[in-house]
Amino acid sequence: MVNPGILPDSDIAELFNQGALASERPLDEDQIQPASLDLRLGRVAYRVRASFLPGPKCRVLDKLERLKLHEISLDAGAVLETGCVYIVPLMETLRLPQDVSASANPKSSTGRLDIFTRVITDHGQEFDKIPAGYTGPLYLEVSPRTFPIVVRPGSRLSQIRFRRGNAVLSEEELAQLHERETLVASEQPNISGGGIALSIDLNGGEGGLVGYRAKHHSGVIDVDRKAAYDVRDFWEPIYDYGKRELVLDPDEFYILVSREAVHVPPNHAAEMTPFDPLVGEFRVHYAGFFDPGFGHSAAGGSGSRAVLEVRSHEVPFILEHGQIVGRLVYERMSKAPQKLYGSSLKSNYQGQALKLSKHFR
Description:
By secondary structure, the chain is mainly beta.
């Protein structure tokens, strides 16, 4: 009997062996993660007039013929400008079994650069959702919000998870798992709305640093270069002076951190869900996947806090220390992964506190 749940790394590799997943070129060595697969950009990007969904009767390419402004080769590296929307065919294509569905999310580094990405399928009626049994290509909508970026074929901005059935933990199951495993470092965890709450830390760490605000009119960031850029050229540090609050200005982008340390046990995966807009005029966390082993002490991650990508909406909004800003929903893995996040992997954010993306030194 096949267990319901998120498919681990070994099963993702088996999807390739069975032809349920295919790619234009061999997989990168670290492309398969404990509970997800990184998706790679293809060789061309289409600048389009506006974001779109193809709808049940249309392929993405059919809509592109009507909406594209021009076509850009990525072969030598290309700059994607802020404020523009691009559609990029991905190297990976799907032929999913009838009992396997998928969902996508930006990678952590993508979210921390304020790059808005969503996966689109032919005949799709939702972003980032791939129905069970889907056969066809994948496309990525890419819209840099703050920094212009350089990308090329093989750049990895998004990731995909595969699942059989529904293995989301109920609130009762979540409370029991927290009792055994301490999912968040909180004496009285807030478990409601199908998830466990995370709150904002505005106390300030070393020197009172609480976060960063992105600078406008900065240079270009090559998404494939690590530790290549000076923080001061792209970010303004934000300090707390005792008020333990922060006014979010509209159209500004912030990197902040959760007050609680997060733990994802080896047999589970988690996702940060969009926060209820009725609670506050802000969006938290573009990149929502937390792999098995994140914050797990045996994988070198005891005390990993969630770094939060925060953007206010139409009006200024005051965040206060300890205010709930998101919820973690936990799902069972169909079986344990062969490797955990942070253990024998090049995991950039294991054991993290407040931390910018891997591109900065």
